[in-house]
Write a structure and sequence with these properties.
By secondary structure, the chain is an alpha+beta fold. The chain is built from 25 helices and 27 strands. Helix 18 runs parallel beside helix 19 and helix 18 packs parallel to helix 21.
Length: 737
């Protein structure tokens, strides 16, 4: 096969990489081999630009049961012989082309990563980013993505319990669709993604193979794409009812001793599943594509090996147990076919009957070149960071009320109730704190008194202004969300969404964000157990904001001792716990909305953050706090308003503003939590805050039917809640001509 630039573009390989393949093989690769190298050496599978940087992240703790990067997801011991298996992954590019199927198959893929390990999926979360909804295409993407997530997840019977949605022009045309799933397993029944033992059988289970998803890993996920290019064939089509059968059958199989390993067919399909499993097992594989069931006529070995058709699993069956495994799948009405065997020669041998179409060393296929680039801080970033938001005109007291109402109506801040109403968040009956009630979802672990809290969070705007600090803030805020429920953060997964890493500015953002995340993880003692990197997120040559999304898990020793965000009772006292800074406007929602500016430099004190989180968690455990709500988008006044709305309680307060009024009310300084206590517990709160070296400021009293702060605002609670409840819905009802 003559190799041209067009051929290499199709498999996302450079000439230098192609020449390296020829050098290592000692010959020209066959067509099938080239396709396999393109997929396995892609950014999506090979992590060429990110793997050296990801090594900076801490990955170990006494709870972690798996090695990061070695399995489909990370497993964390939660006691009682049980573990939580968790991962977050992107489906950005497919969702930009076919939003419904792109999002739906993103859900299917992340769920397979969980049950492949022998864990029952018990919850899902989503972190989503879109351009402004007034744009017709952005509305199409939004509606399609929400529909796809709801359709697939609801059919599986897995509750969708949390997440976040952010809107910004930077994501127009390139939405971010990050799906997270957590599952529950027994420690002694975890299944590895490994192929080992010469003579053991390679079995393909589930859907027939079609042409959908071709070049998904090497094409969509590993390069930028142009608007006028036809890429719909690279988007998979899902069947959630078939996946539900796979879940039950694979979990039953995980309880036997009939198999060596199991791997789902995701990115790069049969190529990735078979070769990566063999690599982990130190073995080889011999596969005959003639034995692969197909739903389309005339498929070539190239297409069969690179197809990303959904709902397929690769099972490595112990020799002699083939009939038992086949009978199990037959009972679940699932097709299973033996397509090859494990070998001890270290080669990935692909045959079409007697004809060998590919034969390459497994270790070579899974050993892409790694790139550590030199980079420098962009000049434009230096300018943004030295722009002083204090130069902007301050608010008058009379303007605070109208500004608050507009912020509450902004789609990033407004209630996402319409969205999570599309999802079933109570199925399986484990949900204790549902979407909208707290800063993180809380679920019980049946049969124990324990619970878990889960969240996903990230702020691309802050990473844009300072990638290092933004990365640290993403970790800290996700942990703060968990702490506000009373949970101890124990592990995280991440999805790193960035532009083209070959560009200096993007590589700088990627490197610095990971460095910042690593610093926060070490300070807060939170290991990274799994994750995904999504690069080349660009539209019309412009990269999105650098957007690391953090999925995090927390543990509650007693799920009954959890906390929510809403104010509780008349006469309770509200306090601000943590940093009392009131002038951090840089990167705030207020700054962008009212001054059309994104400038300044965010900051965080990780030592204070650690003390604050310990203090808050202990206060909840001792039963002192009645509510806890992280201050984030919109600042202090928005946090107070949300606590009022969620709890259906008014608030009357007064405090001294030291600096700018807009900074005090709407600045987004880190390490701050709005809490409330019963009137008799004020002294206990003060005592614990002093013990942990955390500042605390009295804000006012819970009660009544108004939100009032002396000298600034005094509004009926109904007038405050209306824009928050209806802000997103009103935008969705706009008729675009």
């Amino acid at each position: 096969m003559p190799v041209t630039q067009e051929v290499l573009d199709e498999v996302a390989l450079s000439w230098a990489e192609y020449n390296l393949i020829v050098e290592r093989l000692g010959r020209e690769p066959t067509e099938v081999e080239l396709g396999m190298f393109g997929s396995l050496w892609s950014e999506h599978c090979g992590y060429k630009h990110s793997k050296p940087l990801l090594a900076l992240l801490p990955t170990k703790s006494r709870r972690v049961l798996t090695k990061a990067g070695e399995e489909n997801a990370g497993a964390i011991d939660v006691g009682n012989g049980q573990c939580i298996v968790m991962k977050i992954e992107s489906h950005n590019h497919p969702s930009a082309i076919e939003p419904f199927q792109g999002a739906a198959t993103g859900v299917g893929g992340i769920v397979r990563d969980i049950f492949t390990m022998g864990a029952r999926p018990i919850a899902m979360l989503n972190s989503l980013r879109f351009g402004p909804l007034k744009d017709r295409q952005n509305r199409h993407l939004f509606n399609g993505v929400i529909g796809g997530i709801g359709s697939y997840g609801n059919c599986l019977g897995i509750p969708d319990v949390g997440g976040e949605i952010v809107f910004s022009e930077t994501y127009s045309g390139n939405p971010l669709v990050n799906a997270m799933c957590v599952g529950l397993a027994r420690n002694d029944r975890l299944v590895k993604a490994v192929a080992s033992g010469a003579g053991n059988v390679v079995m393909l289970v589930g859907a027939d193979t079609g042409r959908d998803g071709l070049h998904g890993a090497s094409g969509l996920a590993s390069r930028t794409f142009e608007e006028d290019r036809e890429l719909r064939s690279a988007v998979q089509v899902g069947n959630p009812f078939l996946e539900k059968l796979l879940i039950e059958a694979c979990l039953e199989l995980a309880g036997t001793d009939w198999i060596v390993g199991m791997q789902d067919l995701g990115a790069a399909g049969l190529t990735s599943a078979s070769v990566e499993s063999a690599s982990k097992g130190g073995s080889g594989v011999d596969i005959d594509v003639m034995l692969v069931p197909r739903r389309e006529q005339g498929m070539t070995p190239y297409e069969i090996m690179l197809s990303e058709s959904q709902e397929r699993m690769l099972v490595i069956v112990k020799k002699g147990y083939e009939d038992k495994v086949r009978d199990l799948f037959n009972r679940w009405e699932l097709r299973s076919d033996i397509i090859g065997q494990v070998t001890d020669d270290g080669l990935a041998r692909i045959r079409e009957g007697e004809r060998v179409v590919a034969e390459a060393p497994v270790k070579l296929l899974t050993d892409p070149p790694l790139y550590s680039l030199s980079c420098r801080k962009p000049a434009w970033l230096k300018h943004l960071q030295t722009t002083d938001p204090a130069d902007l005109p301050d608010l008058s007291a009379e303007e605070c009320g109208p500004v608050l109402l507009k912020l509450l109506a902004s789609p990033t801040i407004a209630s996402k109730r319409w969205v999570y109403q599309q999802f079933d968040h109570q199925v399986q009956t484990n949900t204790v704190v549902p979407p909208g009630a707290g800063d993180a979802a809380v679920l019980r672990i049946k049969g124990t008194k324990k619970g878990i809290a889960v969240t996903s969070d990230g702020n691309g705007r802050l990473c844009y202004l300072d990638p290092y600090r933004g990365g640290a803030i993403a970790v800290a805020e996700a942990a703060r969300n968990l702490v506000c429920t009373g949970a101890r953060p124990v592990a995280m997964t991440n999805c790193l969404n960035f532009g083209d890493p070959g560009k200096n500015d993007v590589y700088y953002q990627l490197k610095e964000s990971i460095r910042g995340m690593a610093a926060a993880c070490r300070k807060l003692n939170i290991p990274v157990v799994s994750g995904n990197v999504s690069l080349y997120n660009e539209s019309r040559g412009v990269a999105i904001y650098p957007t690391p999304i953090i999925g995090m898990l927390g543990v509650l020793e007693d799920v009954r001792k959890h906390c929510t965000a809403g104010f509780k009772d008349e006469g309770d006292t509200a306090f601000l716990l943590g940093a009392l800074s009131d002038d951090d406007l840089g990167g705030s929602e207020y700054q962008e909305m009212f001054h059309e500016s994104v400038a300044g430099r965010p900051s965080i004190d990780l030592d204070l953050e650690k003390r604050l989180q310990r203090c808050c968690r202990l206060l909840i455990r001792q039963g002192i706090l009645k509510s806890a709500h992280d201050c984030s988008e919109g600042g202090l006044l928005v946090a107070l308003a949300e606590s009022c709305i969620i709890g259906n309680r008014g608030f009357a307060g007064s405090w001294t503003v030291q600096g700018r009024l807009d900074g005090a009310m709407f600045g987004e300084s880190q390490s701050r939590i709005v809490v409330s206590v019963a009137a008799g517990d004020e002294a206990a709160l003060q005592e614990y805050a002093h013990r942990y070296g955390v500042d605390v400021k009295k804000l006012g009293t819970v009660g009544g039917t108004r939100l009032a702060v002396d000298g600034t605002i005094d509004l009926p609670l109904g007038e405050v809640s209306a824009p928050w409840r209806n802000g997103l819905v009103d935008l969705l009802e706009i008729k675009v001509l």
